[in-house]
């Protein structure tokens, strides 16, 4: 039997990552599914095996911990899997003031959203370059386009993802590797519940332009395959992203602060 091409998807236990995994199974990829909760991934793997004959490897790993990426890479190496597509999707945000949110949680956001994403990319891209073939989809956010008072570390972490991905898009183009940053606006997933752990946010009250995780996943995949550096799903989010550079910083900060604040 022919060895299938494999996609490694982080944050595959829910939301956008789960939808991307389902889509990639339909596209014929074998899957390496990574997140902390293994049970939802095991059930997903079973479903995809039955529906499409997808071979899946489930890896339970905390990518925010120092050994998280090493755990994933040990599985990939032990099974001699060639990863054709890396989807760096695992991430979380926290609403609240910088001085009051726990320092450990805020540094944990950097460990997951920035450090693990960079480490996995560094571990898997050299193989893609050697094969002159590969894809990397990094899930940033519409938050990447401006600073975000009351969610400052989250917005800054996503600005890193956008900048890093756009640079790699250019750097790896000549090596046959396509890299995209997916920048969704508010999407209905488990994200809001985790982000509101300490404080709520107007952002999560069903704002204009909200898309579902499946639509976001489909637009992200399509943009990646078409070779787009940056994919912003949804018209409202695209118009907003376009307006950002023309808006004075002081006004951007006020508007973003208003939306990030709790309305209670
Ligand atoms: N929803 C939105 O409005 C929105 C907007 C823009 C960008 N995004 C971005 O989209 C990405 C996916 O989020 P989502 O909206 O789909 O939210 P979600 O439903 O909460 O999914 C987050 C995924 O990341 C995994 N994850 C969280 N912490 C982890 C850790 N320490 N180690 C390994 N995996 C971890 C979670 O699995 P476990 O809990 O099982 O570990 C889950 O599978 C994130 O990068 C987020 O920043 C979301």
Return the domain count: 1
CATH class category name: Alpha Beta
CATH topology: Rossmann fold
What is the terminal separation in angstroms?
A: 59 Å
Q: Give, in spatial order, the strands making up the sheet with the most strands.
A: 3-2-1-4-5-6-9
Q: Treating each run of at least 4 consecutive H or I residues as one helix, how many helices? A: 9
Our Rg estimate from Cα atoms comes to 18 Å
Sequence stretches where pLDDT stays below 50 over 5 or more residues: none
Q: Into which percent range does the helicity of residues fall?
A: 40-55%
Estimate what percentage of residues fall within beta strands.
15-25%
The biggest sheet, with number of strands, parallel, antiparallel or mixed sense and barrel status, is: 7 strands, parallel
| Large-scale geometry | globular
Descriptive notes:
Helix content is about 50%, strand content about 15%. With about 260 residues, the protein is of the alpha/beta class. It has one domain: NAD(P)-binding Rossmann-like Domain (Rossmann fold, 3-Layer(aba) Sandwich), CATH 3.40.50.720. The strands form two sheets. A seven-stranded parallel β-sheet has the order 3-2-1-4-5-6-9, with helices on both faces. It has a two-stranded parallel ribbon with strand order 7-8. Helix 1 (about 15-25) crosses helix 7 (about 215-225) and helix 4 packs parallel to helix 5 (about 150-175). The structure holds NADP nicotinamide-adenine-dinucleotide phosphate. NADP nicotinamide-adenine-dinucleotide phosphate binds near residues 37, 63, 93 and 184. NADP nicotinamide-adenine-dinucleotide phosphate (NAP) binds near residues 11 and 191.
């Amino acid at each position: 039997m022919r060895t299938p091409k494999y996609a490694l998807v982080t944050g595959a236990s829910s939301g956008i990552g789960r939808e991307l995994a389902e889509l990639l199974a339909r596209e014929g990829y074998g899957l390496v599914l990574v997140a902390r909760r293994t049970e939802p991934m095991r059930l997903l793997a079973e479903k995809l095996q039955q529906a499409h004959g997808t071979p899946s490897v489930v890896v339970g790993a905390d990518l925010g911990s120092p050994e998280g990426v090493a755990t994933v890479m040990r599985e990939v190496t032990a099974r001699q899997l060639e990863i054709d597509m890396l989807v760096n999707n695992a991430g979380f945000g926290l609403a609240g003031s910088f001085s009051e949110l726990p320092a450990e949680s805020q540094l944990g956001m950097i460990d997951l959203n920035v450090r693990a994403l960079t480490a996995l990319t560094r571990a898997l891209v050299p193989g893609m370059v050697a094969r002159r073939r590969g894809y990397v989809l990094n899930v940033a956010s519409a938050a990447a386009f401006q600073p975000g008072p009351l969610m400052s570390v989250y917005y800054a972490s996503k600005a890193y993802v956008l900048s890093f991905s756009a640079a790699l898009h250019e750097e790896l183009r000549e090596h046959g590797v396509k890299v995209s940053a997916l920048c969704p606006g508010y999407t209905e997933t488990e994200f809001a519940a985790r982000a509101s752990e300490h404080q709520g946010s107007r952002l999560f009250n069903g704002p204009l332009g909200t898309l579902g995780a499946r639509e976001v996943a489909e637009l992200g995949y399509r943009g990646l395959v078409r070779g787009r550096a940056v994919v912003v799903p949804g018209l409202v989010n695209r118009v907003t992203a376009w307006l950002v550079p023309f808006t004075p910083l002081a006004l951007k900060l006020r508007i973003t602060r208003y939306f990030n604040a709790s309305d209670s």
